[in-house]
Design goal:
36 strands; four-stranded antiparallel sheet; globular; 45% strand
Length: 471
Amino acid sequence: MTLLRRSVSRRNVLASILGTTGYAAAQSFLPGIPNVGLKSDTDPHRTECGVGALMPWADGLYASTYNSSGQKNSGTGLGLYRIDDTLKPSLLDVHNGVYANRFIHHASNQCIIGPYIIDSDGKWRRIEELVPYRLTSTMPHLTDPENRVYFQSMEGHFIELDIATLKTRVLNDLTKEMGINLQPHFKGGYTAQGRVVVTNNGFFQYGEDQGGLFEYDGKTWRRISSKPHMDVAARQNMGNVMFATGWDERSVLFHALVKGEWQNYRLPKASHAFEQAWQTEWMRIREVETEHYMMDIHAMFYELQPLAFEDHIWGIKPVCQHLRMVPDYCSFRGLLAVGGNETTPNVDNNAVLGQPQSGVWFGKTDDLWSWGKPQGWGGPWRNDMVTAGKPSDPFLFTGFDKKVLHLISEKAASVTIEVDFLGNGTWAKYETVRLTSGEYKPIVFPEGFSAHWCRLTPSASCKMTAEFMFT
């Protein structure tokens, strides 16, 4: 009865926002929640139809769909859409490419989405020189942000665009420059604190180190990490903190650039299904309410504060777990718009799937809390050589009901568990666990016990495993 009243109430609210006609046209699989369906062609090649980018602009919501590889044999019918106030989509142009970038160029008052540039009246132009590239991010220029921007392609091309002439110039091929031998899969990128940071999530088997997090100071590229990374985000104010997400065999990697220095943290994985490069479309960090970030990584949504307090990052709050592929999300007309990638036969590699299609789900930000209780696992060590007296990366330790730590050591040693309940780097000892050679020991924390972060310090240099389970 409560659920029914909630559904009817939400349906009435949405109807009042969209109007009866527009709301009826947008009915979906969930009562009271509209969903705009997009598709690619049935013939000749069944592909992907992911919604790679969403951007509210010029009184509409612009969406770019993508296929498998942006090649002629990987599907047709993909393009640039405009969704109006009634949530009715219209196809503006067919590009049959792979584009997941979006950016507002403040100086020229234009939106960049895929290989398109759109003025404030909705007049769009296709940037022909960008069409062949699988574009994954657009970023402010380091030295001339009023007149130029950067693009990153999935293959590792780092491209500069002149906003006035729409002429492009390839500045770097990061696949070659960084010595990447496996298939590259570059994703997010952004500019803050005098540097550009981009990600590569190319990761196909445990043990590989061909992914990466890279930064550029305008002259030289530097590798920060060799593990797969996904997105980068920063505001231009509020301390200009930059965030980056990724993962390794152990857990989710979370980085924050605060006053020019990187801080490293770890978060749990909510699903094993997002592990491999092909399974990761696209896990973003977006601002969904004014000056409030929502972060999606490894099947978990989190609240994220865009500032650093006391020069530290804390208050990261798990919201829900999910299995949905979420290439992009944003706010539109007071609703949360969530792109998808639902039906992807990929040239019939899965022969029980049919026509490629996906949808843009519309609800409210607070609806995410009903998607699934936050649960997950991960840790700082997975059969790793650890160093005596060296603390692990801080691991998220709040927002979960029940917590267990699994420990095993190849030789006799102790592990000191510390918690940071203030979030500012003040560590307090919780317990010291003593292990004999080869001993496994579980530590069950009291139900409801929480702190912002937890870290572990070994007493001996040896091979250890430490994994948290949160339920």
